[in-house]
Design a protein that fits this description.
Blueprint: E1 3-6, E2 10-16, E3 19-27, H1 31-44, E4 50-59, E5 62-68, H2 78-87, E6 93-100, H3 107-125, E7 128-141, H4 146-155, E8 159-165, E9 169-176, H5 177-188, E10 196-206
Antiparallel strand pairs: 1-7, 2-3, 3-6, 4-5, 4-6, 7-9, 7-10, 8-9
Helix pairs in contact: 2-3
Length: about 210
């Protein structure tokens, strides 16, 4: 399952008839993490009138969705926010829009527009990344071969996520499933010189472009 998420937390703010809407767009990896972040944001903005939420999170191959109007008229905040995440194919993302009431009622249409505009502004400002199913592997190699291996990874859409220096160099790498076949073949035929290679886990990785 491919999806789009964001690189890091993004915040955007708009003002509508003296009401301030602050959208926090946050990458998350689980429902548990999302719920914890929601608690923290509500604590940070405890003096606000509303903290409306929406999230889409992939767990065990399924998309879990949730939204809340947090006291706003039904359907004016959470549902439109969730709909925007769906239309933009965004997942593993939590959005919390905080409203500081400015004393002027916006009406249902005005609320929908304000909550939608704030999240759209945050999405526009965010750095989006494409995720796909892949795997993490651990590669052991000598110091002499490290430059060659880095060059190989760059040319074969393999991401080196971590490097440990000891008697040998150990590289944690992330790659798409079809790249694994080529890597193992090149390892067997000595096209790339490695001491050892093993699969660690299946995971969602950043898709090569």
């Amino acid at each position: 399952m491919d999806f789009i998420t964001i690189q890091k937390k993004t915040q955007a703010e708009i003002t509508e008839k003296k009401s301030k809407f602050i959208a926090n767009l946050i990458p998350v990896e689980s429902v548990e993490q999302a719920e914890q972040v929601i608690k923290e944001i509500k604590k940070n903005y405890h003096d606000a009138r509303h903290n409306c939420i929406a999230y889409r999170i992939i767990e065990n191959g399924n998309i879990i969705e949730k939204s809340s109007d947090d006291g706003e008229p039904s359907g004016t905040a959470g549902a439109p926010m969730l709909n925007i995440l769906q239309k933009n194919e965004l997942a593993n993302i939590l959005v919390v829009v905080t409203r500081y009431f400015g004393g002027i009622l916006l009406g249902t249409g005005g609320l929908v527009r304000a909550y939608s505009d704030s999240i759209l502004k945050a999405i526009e400002q965010s750095q989006k990344i494409h995720k796909c199913e892949g795997l993490e592997m651990l590669v052991t190699l000598t110091y002499n071969e490290f430059d060659n291996f880095q060059y190989y990874c760059k040319n074969n859409n393999i991401f080196i996520s971590n490097v440990e220096y000891g008697e040998f160099i150990e590289c944690s790498i992330e790659l798409e499933d079809d790249v694994k076949t080529k890597l193992l073949k090149d390892f067997e035929t000595k096209n790339i010189i490695l001491q050892n290679i093993k699969e660690i886990a299946k995971k969602y990785i950043t898709k090569s472009i």
